[in-house]
Amino acid sequence: MNLLTLRKLPCIAISVFIFYSCTYDTKEVLKPKPNPIDTTTKDDTTIIVKFADVESIFKDNDCFSCHSGGSGGVAFEDYISLKNYLKVDSVIFIKSIKHESSSTSKYMPQGKNKLTEDKIQKILTWIRQGIN
To answer: At what angle are helices 79-97 and 51-60 packed, to 10 degrees?
Structure first.
């Protein structure tokens, strides 16, 4: 092999790499997965959800009684502690109540049936609107 051929090899290799690494993707393939917080079936602009609207969901499903004092590493027993928790871990919380966690031991409420879709949507709307 002569010197000129050796100099062309890297250029040819790079050209082949670039050519074969380019692909054509449709919009569906490139569309990002939705954030669980953004998943909704209702129009958030027509419904204003306050803590008073979701408080009964947390009380009726024993969320406050099980999580007061930090049970399971998650502590919330009132509005302030719940709000502080959700500002840090809302995605984990949402996956838990939607039963989408990687472990069934993280499904909430633990030992009870999954919340109804209406209750989950109300909580999601409350979180999206700023946890007020």
So the answer is: 70
Domain that holds residue 69: 34-128
Alpha helices by DSSP H, the chain? 3-21, 27-30, 51-60, 63-67, 79-97, 117-128
Cis before 32? omega within 30? no
Instruction: Judge whether 44 lies within some domain.
Output: yes
Tens digits of residue pLDDT in 81-115: 888 888 888 888 899 899 998 888 888 888 888 99
Residue 56 lies in a domain: yes
Domain presence at residue 18: no
How many residues does this entry show for the chain?
A: 132
Query: What span, in angstroms and rounded, lies between the C-alpha atoms of 132 and 129?
Result: 7
